[in-house]
Specification:
single chain, about 190 residues, mainly alpha, 8 helices
């Protein structure tokens, strides 16, 4: 369900969405003494049978995905049309990761691959708005995964997961601020 909201409220949701997502991950990690960056995936926190913080983790991701969806179709689409399409898909994929937690096995794996392979939102924003922030975030995310797959460092998959998602935050925040202040007819490069 998409609510009819004005562009300013939508832009605020664009800031709130990742903050809620990151907060739920941080709280889940703090409450999970067993979690190790060296061996775990972030999704281990959302395992509904083995993790006591699964409701916090999965609930936070579901809410973040929902709010990101509201931002994408409620405000970003007027400012960065193509990026909003890709961000809508990313928001849905984030909700799939939380809905099909690790208990589901293959569906969770596919949802995670779907989510982490959705770099087109960053690429689209980099091109559509000539955003150096988005291009830098895309590069950082790509390099973090490339180094992980090449076994250039020893860590759990949580490390490239965290780096690639945190790399999106600067341009997402920038787009939300720009959307909040944007008037039709402005080019708005960030």
């Amino acid at each position: 369900m998409i609510f009819a909201i004005n562009e300013k409220v939508s832009a605020q949701l664009g800031v709130l969405a990742p903050l809620i997502g990151y907060a739920s991950i941080a709280i889940s990690i703090l409450l999970s003494p067993w979690f190790r960056w060296e061996t775990n995936a972030l999704s281990d926190l959302g395992h509904s049978v083995r993790s006591g913080v699964a409701p916090i983790y999965n609930g936070g991701l579901l809410l973040a995905g929902f709010l990101l969806l509201q931002y994408s179709v409620g405000g970003l689409n007027r400012y960065a049309k193509w990026t909003s399409y890709f961000l809508t898909i990313s928001a849905f994929a984030l909700q799939l990761v939380a809905t099909f937690d690790e208990v589901y096995g293959l569906p969770h794996f596919l949802a995670s691959v779907f989510f982490f392979s959705l770099t087109p939102a960053s690429l689209s924003y980099a091109l559509e708005k000539r955003s150096l922030l988005a291009a830098s975030g895309l590069a950082l995310g790509f390099v973090s995964w490339l180094l992980y797959w090449a076994k250039m460092y020893s860590a759990g998959v949580a490390v490239p997961e965290a780096l690639s998602t945190l790399a999106v935050f600067p341009w997402l925040l920038s787009s939300a601020v720009k959307t909040h202040h944007w008037k039709r007819g402005e080019s708005g490069h960030l």
